[in-house]
Design goal:
This protein is of the alpha/beta class. It has one domain: TIM Barrel. Strand 7 and strand 8 form a beta hairpin. Helix 1 packs parallel to helix 2.
């Protein structure tokens, strides 16, 4: 089994970290720069920074905050939100990000995935997928979960792989913020239908077994969480120790 990754997420609005439930009812959760530095020191494998209102507000990602975060962390940093063009990707990478995450822009213009992966390398291009279950299938949502598309998640996963994406950040809108556990079935279906690494997101609670389940049954390569780390419900080191005892290796062990 390849080493798994534990990834804290910073959902940022107006320069501050926030967290909601099912993408709604956002509450303040701390300063993103301080949180990022803490997670880097505590043994996180990567950090994801999402400017969650940039797309809907039609503006660029808050680059000055990205620059501040990048100066304080010594692990890979993925940045998303408001990234629409090749120039946006270049600017984010110049601000210190290691990867750029595309969601709405990729759905609206899939060719940007191919162009970006050729210019910057597929390892720099993450496609974020916000998924909601409807009857017997999952569908892709864009604009920070506000707009449903007619695209089925598994169809989109196969397309972005062909276009050259390097990784998938998969968020279950159904479980997001509920702290009842990841959508392991969604993650399993996606992970088994792509060769790309899959980051599971949405639903982690203060129960370490949630991570074990999404790594084992869900077959995810990494697990992302926000609230439980922001509010110290689970310590990253304790989580990694728990996973090791359950024969799940994480990056820090290697």
């Amino acid at each position: 089994m390849l080493a798994k990754r534990i990834i804290p997420c910073l959902d940022v609005k107006d320069g501050q970290t926030v967290k909601g439930v099912n993408f709604l009812n956002l509450k303040y959760a701390g300063d993103p720069v301080s949180l990022a530095a803490r997670y880097s020191d505590e043994g996180a494998d990567e950090i994801v920074f999402l400017d969650i209102t940039a797309t809907n507000e039609g503006r660029d990602t808050i680059k000055h905050v990205v620059e501040q975060v990048s100066k304080r962390v010594f692990i890979p940093l993925t940045v998303g939100g408001g990234i629409r063009t090749i120039e946006d990707i270049r600017n984010i990478l110049l601000c210190g990000a290691d990867k750029a995450s595309l969601n709405t822009a990729a759905v609206n213009n899939p060719e940007i995935i191919a162009r970006a992966s050729k210019i910057f390398g597929s390892q720099c291009i993450v496609v974020a997928i916000d998924a909601r279950r409807e009857k017997d299938d999952w569908y892709v949502y864009i604009n920070a979960g506000r707009k449903k598309t007619d695209i089925k998640v598994l169809d989109w996963v196969k397309q972005v792989e062909k276009l050259g994406a390097g990784e998938i950040l998969l968020t279950s809108m159904d479980t997001d913020g509920t702290q009842k556990g990841f959508d392991v079935e969604l993650n399993r279906q996606v992970s088994l239908n792509t060769n790309l690494p899959v980051i599971a997101s949405g639903g982690a609670g203060p129960v370490m077994e949630h991570f074990k389940d999404v790594f084992e049954y869900g077959a995810a390569d990494a697990a992302l969480a926000a609230s439980i780390f922001h509010y110290n419900s689970i310590k990253i080191k304790d989580l990694k120790d728990y996973l090791a005892k359950n024969n799940i290796k994480t990056r820090g062990e290697l």
